[in-house]
Amino acid sequence: MAIAIRDVREHELDSVLALNNAAGPTILALDSTRIRWFFDNADYFRVADVDGHIAGFLMAMREASDYDSPNYRWFCERYANFVYIDRIVVAKPYRGLGLGRVFYADATSFAEVRVPVLSCEVFLEPRDDVSVLFHGTYGFQEVGQQIMPGLSRRVSLLAKQLPSYEFVRSTYLEGPTGQLPNQPWLAQRKRSGPPTPRRAAGGL
């Protein structure tokens, strides 16, 4: 079994949309306009390719986006620099293979060279104990709760500190070049939407 985590391709958006909307009540439904918005604007939008089949995906946003998610906005109001995991979906036939941890390891690698905090949320109503346990064992801690407007469902807002970021910031982002080394694994995905201005790199 060959597994690759890679950036989504435009022709795969319909497959990702179908996968999202078949995921169940803990994943909010999307439509074609919304999935296209993510393709144009998400800082991280990668799929798990298993033997040529899309087995899952993860989407994440940095700060300073115009994304209107109330949970994303919650973090914008409290953190200067962060990556927010909006959703992760693994197709049922591929669950139990550890793809969730592979995705989170990849997302952490993406985030820790750019920001000090990786964030997300999990539903508490209905309570998703599998997700709560997964995030707890991956180093996330609850930093707040809120009732999602329009859904009347309570969520737990989670954050994970990324200690590697301080080294990256002092050595590269605030170093002589002011940027990361030119390596493929450090590259930002190419988006078709307008570039998002970033605040100066800093702490919380």
What does this structure look like?
This protein is of the alpha+beta class. The chain contains six helices and seven strands, in the order βααββαβαβαββα. The chain has helices spanning 13-21, 32-41, 70-76, 99-111, 129-137, 164-173, and strands at 3-7, 44-50, 53-62, 83-90, 117-123, 141-148, 153-161. The protein has a seven-stranded mixed sheet, sandwiched between helices. α1 (13-21) packs across α2. Residues 199-204 have low confidence and may be disordered.
Summarize the structure.
The chain has 204 residues and is α+β, with helices and mostly antiparallel strands. It has helices spanning 13-21, 32-41, 70-76, 99-111, 129-137, 164-173; strands at residues 3-7, 44-50, 53-62, 83-90, 117-123, 141-148, 153-161. 28% of the residues lie in helices and 26% in strands.
